[in-house]
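Dear colleague,

As promised, here are the two records you asked about, laid out in our usual form so they can be pasted straight into your sheet.

NAME FIELD: protein one
SEQUENCE, THEN STRUCTURE:
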Amino acid sequence: MLVEETLRAASPREMVDHHFDRAAERLRLSAEMRTLLSTPFREIKAQVPVRMDDGSLRIFTAYRVQHNSARGPAKGGIRFHPWVNEEEIRALAETMTWKAALVNVPFGGAKGGIVCDPAELSEGELERLTRKFISRIHRLLGPYRDVPAPDMGTNPQVMSWILDEYSSHYGYTPACVTGKPAELGGAPDRMQATGRGVAYVLSRYIESFGHPLKDLGLKVVIQGFGNVGSHTALALAAEGCEVMAVSDVYGGIASRDRKGLPIPALAAYVREHGSVAGFPDTRPVDNEEILTLDCDVLIPAAVECVLHQGNAPRVQARMVVEAANLPTMPEADEIFARRGITVIPDILANAGGVVVSYLEWTQNLQQEEWDENKTEAELRRYLSRAFQEVSARAEAERISLRQAAYEIAIERVAQAERLRGA
């Protein structure tokens, strides 16, 4: 089955429900609490009219789902992608609730998206689309209500337009959005944070067995070479790992021998050519084949639902580290468990982004500016604490890392709801 066909057939909503129900059952949550925690607080669907460069008017469909705010303002990215749909955004918003709770930052979960292909839009059209969307929902956003961030298809420039549009209604409000350029109050390494966090969590896992990551020379395969995948690759290469293959939406490449790809040179090539495809002295691979290559660590860093019962039996990695959101379907999880393949779940592995978003938000509220060293130290502290908690619970209760992570997160949100009078 092609990756695209699998994605269309898969249901992120069903995946999130599966993980939630398993954790809620073990936590013995009441039926009322389960309903409360699984029901979004607010869902917004907006029709966004945009005047295109050719003078025509085009209507875009946009969503913002605020899942839960019991522990703090809703937090989550805004993605621009042709496959955006209400079910996906709802599932990702709930995932953000559990992710923020797991790393214990004072946020709830949200997610937004616009059905569009940013590659087909000019910069002016993207700016008008962004501003019009924010103008439609600004009353429901804000530093203490809902704080957007970058996601697939968006970047610091889009966050700058969000900041400016929101501030046009309420005065200069840098804490209304994170992932901004440093010149507008952004954290110095926000765009690298998720990828570097993935590498750090993997490093902590390896260290828990008494082996520094630098000493092992692990063979790594990464599906996805966008913001998250590329920074994961750069961080792991710096730690002595050998990145054997990578891919993006246009195709993939693999090393012709057992030596890793030159990741800094590859990153420079992508900046010039827009894709990893065609990088010299490599062989082509597609986005399905790359998941089953021989390696120590497989890192899905692109979109949801790419690991499923059709390809899980052919995965050759000893470990899967989920840099993407919801990349592993429950049936694949079960297959990996039977085969002894460890999975480091998304709500832990890729939580570096929400941690640094929290650090940026905090600095904006206090009108402070941290240097990169302090931000990096705080990122590591939050992720290390979360890893230790998940690892300890998984070992003590003889459950998977995913099960432990979800139980810790859901427990925290449920307690917040009880204390607030649910």
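NAME FIELD: protein two
SEQUENCE, THEN STRUCTURE:
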Amino acid sequence: MYSVYGTPPKGRQVSCSTRRPRYAPLPVRAGVTLVELLVVIAVIALLLAILLPSLGQARALARSVQCRSNLRQMAIAACDYANAFADRYPIAYYTEARQLIVSYAWDFTTKRDLSTWPATTVVTPGLLWRGCGMEAIQQCPGYEGAANWLTDPYTGYNYNTSYIGHGQGEAIPAPAMVAQIRVPARTALFGDGQYSAGANKFMRAPWANPGDVGFAGRHAGTQGYRHLKKTNVAFCDAHAETWSERYTDTYPADRRRIAPGTGFLSADNSMYDLE
């Protein structure tokens, strides 16, 4: 009991420092205002706007590197093929019609059996691979369209048909020999094939030549500049590189039909011929 004068009774001491109000006020916390929230959102949006193009370019570069790797392996396979077949490269295409219709091409072989209903079609690795399973390497990681040749499961690359592969319907049907190539490091062998209707697998030189003299439709054998506006090429010495030069000058009838983003590797036939 306290005395009437407000002093504690004897024998009981109360410290002033321990006296607290029964209901102490809670500390006040500062909240996030709408303006601060909008500033944070704006900063995040700005960072994304800066980073996303860089990430997209990095992905495109990675696809280009993978594409060059594919092309280089194809060039090595062509050299291996030539070593096994009397120094000749694989023919670009030809067809046999017996019990089956067999369309042989450098990348895929298509067998169609018309005696069954419906007709059955089997696609296997082509002449370049000598029947071994390397199909997926024929898909360029930078090409998203479908193949437009028979039922090819993968697509995106073409083969120098004007000067090296030739074929059954060409002015020179037999493929070239390795010994005929004067400058292997500057003679295109494989590349990113593309034209107005999509993919193409038969690379054409821009101007007439003995291999396909009189051929109409050179616009259908152009290269696709789809790797950051550049194209990839594998050469006869089995190296691959990214090529930036693009030419669209050819016969007037073909010139008008060359698709945007496609073209030839050189203004003349120098990147394709055997010289």
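A couple of things worth noting about protein two: Residues 54-263 form one domain. The chain has one domain: 54-263.

Best,
R.
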